[in-house]
Structures are given as C-alpha cells and as structure tokens.
User: What shape does this take?
Amino acid sequence: MKIRLAGIVTDSFVDGPGVRATVFAQGCPHQCSGCHNPHTHDPLGGVEMEVEEVLAEIDRARHIQGVTFSGGEPFEQATAFAELARRIKATGRHLVLYSGYTFETLLERSRNDGDVFELLSLADWLVDGPYVESLRELSLPFRGSRNQRILLSKESMAAGRALQAMA
Ligand code: SF4
Assistant: This one.
C-alpha cells in the first residue's frame, strides 16, 4: 500500500513522550494561519512510499520510545495510516496522532469510515484541532496553541467523548 509523506524523522523530542519517530503526512486541507509546515499542504507534493518502507525505517530506529503521525493531515490518508498503525501497535509501541480536525469531527467521521475508526481506536494519544495563531502558547507541551488538546485516543473512542491525557 502506498502512502504520501513529507518526510520521516527518527529523533523527535517534541511530538510526544520520549524520543520518537515522526511520520509527516503530505497534504493538508486546514490552511491554518501561521502554519510551520506549509511545504506539507500540497496533496501531490512530498514523496510516495510503500508502507513497508516506512515500517522498515521505523524498525531500524532501535532507540525510539514511540511513533507519531503528524502532518500535513494524517486523516486525509486514513487507510494507509490505519495500516501503519496496525503494524506499529503490533510491536507494542506508543502511538501519537496529530490532526487538524477535532476529536468530535473525527468521531462523527468514524461512524462511516472504518479506517478513521481504526486509526483512532489504535492510537494512545490524539493531539487534536487546528493551529490557531491567536491562541499560540510556547509553554504548552507537544502543542502550538491553547485550543489543541492531548486526548486518550482509544479510551475516548470507547467512551464516545473526549478524555484528556494531560492538561
Ligand atoms: S493542520 Fe497542521 S499542517 Fe495543516 S495547516 Fe494546520 S498547522 Fe499546518
């Protein structure tokens, strides 16, 4: 299965707890003012890879404590990211998702989209919502603006409502 990415790093300290591999989705519809990753917006930009290649790169990073899907917008390629998530969770790694959509929007979408449902149900954390420049806050861990929440993803899916992992 193919996936379109802006890139992969294996030494991130800012996308969740510990040292992480971060997989950056290519393509984002949110157009947040002040976005730090404008090169990820074009859905035809970046590079197309096989999911197997991405997994091999993550496997080689023996020093990481977890994996993060960021963007861009991972939920625009929910089928490929759900496949990646299945394979990563099978190895027991902690998984963080970033999305410019709120949990409530994704929950609604998950009712008609099994890949969105699976992705949210597999992940440990979901950092949700767009970056809002007027709510920018540099001191927040793992987020850029105060509207964004760190949620317990699979527990929130089971409960049908947003459950915070940390303030
Ligand atoms: S969701 Fe993220 S990548 Fe997309 S425009 Fe907003 S800040 Fe940029």
User: Anything to note?
Assistant: The chain has a mean pLDDT of 97. Strands lie at 2-12, 20-25, 47-50, 66-70, 94-98, 125-128, 149-152, 164-166. The two ends are 36 Å apart (CA to CA).
